[in-house]
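Protein in question filed below.

…
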Amino acid sequence: MNKKLFLAVATLLICFAPKAWAYDFSAKCESGQTLYYNITSDWDGVFTVEVTSEMQDNEELVFYSAPPEGNLVIPERVTYDNTAFSVTGIGDFAFSLCRGLTSINIPNSVTSIGTGAFIGCSGLTSLVIPSSVVHIGDMAFSYCYELKSVNIPHSVTYIGEKAFSECDSLTSITLKSTIQVYDAKLRFVKDGIKYAVLDKNTVEIIPNVQSREEMVVDPDSDPDNPEYYTQEVTYNKCSDMSALIIPEKVTAGNTFTVTGIADLSFLGCSDITSITIPASVTNIGRYAFDECENLTSVTIPNSVTSIGDSAFYGCHNLTSITLPNSITHIGAGTFFNCQNLTSVNIPSSVTSIGNAAFCGCSSLTSITIPNSVEYLGGSVFFGCSSLTSIAIPKSVEYIGGVAFMGCTGLNTITVDSGNPTYDSRNNCNAIVETASNTIVAGCKNTVIPSSITSIGSFAFAIAGPDMTTITIPSSVKEIGYCAFFVCSNLSVEIPSSVKNIGDGAFAECKNLGSKTVKKISKINPNALKLE
């Protein structure tokens, strides 16, 4: 038995096992198989039964001495002890692991299909659920690997979690019920793209995850006589994709509108070179196109209101992108390490740019931050070494740590004069926190004003080899942690006004004079190293 299936059934038995596994009676059905029944009502003129399994072996997961096979016709009524009972339910685990079943006829008398009722019926290919059914239990049809079509009527008001999990062959889903079905794991693949059904009208794209076993060398074994073991490796099946055109609508039984691209949907799909997203899509999930290394262009429509963290992380060959004016937030790491990104248009709808959103975009030469942006996250432009200028609008209220660290090409830094939190007084080519008179970000052309009392942590860190000198005025009392870290060609004098120097403030500054080194060491010897 498939290991995942075994574990799934075993877990369900622990969580949902009924109080008794004995059946009340058995009878042959029209299709020739023997079915087993539990009486659910036999008083006040109401006589009902549910179909159950013959037995249950909790250790071996045995449900039948001779499991039913072939085409199964469940009767609408069954007679026992001269009494006619209506068949109103298919009980928990009733046909679990009946791999020989190929089709099932469920009568219109059935209102409930129990937990795990058909779990692991791997030979089942089609399924029509009658309009009498209102309840489908958890994992009812999960691991029905060959199930190709399913018809769910409008009468159904509940579908349990993972009811159709691992039904990997589904190509047609006729869904008339109006309930939300995402947790039921109704999935299908069309043209290489995998979809998750959200309701009878909409789907979202999800990862088309496959798995394979690979031989791996045991790292603890003798290199001259290596030992191997197998491990399961999962990956996105997308090797045949190049120009990816996501459809607005997709037909698989119902005709569904594609409204979202879920987390990790195209993770590692390195063959994709371009993406066209339709106007029906409203959200792009986290890591959706992570490591699509050959992606060069993407069209994002104005319908998209949300782009998740790291959505285009590591898309090394992406050169430009225009963001829609429908988004308000650029998530953390959205374009992290997009090394060939040269330009990006940030719309005026954006109010926040998350941590490391453009970190490592080493080819980005310019960027305009609109006057709508209030928040710039930490490391937001870290390592954007080709960026030559930056202008902070008056709307910005917060700038995170090391926001511009490693921007070695920066020549000009300005802050709008109307900004109440930050300024660039005296055209100093730096960002100053106004209330504390602290420089929070500078560049090789910064001239520190005489009103500055503190140089913040990482303010000039990795400013580049062209930063050779800077004058620290006598107003400065404190130099923060790693303030001039890796300014390898810097020559500077420390005024007597400086009383505190943070650890690593001048680490890797190899061009400091002996006098300066001595003075720094006297204040804080750890300022010259970083441990």
Remarks:
- The mean pLDDT is 91.
- The two ends are 53 Å apart (CA to CA).
- The chain has four domains: 3-185, 207-318, 328-423, 437-531.
- The CA atoms of residues 305 and 327 lie 4 Å apart.
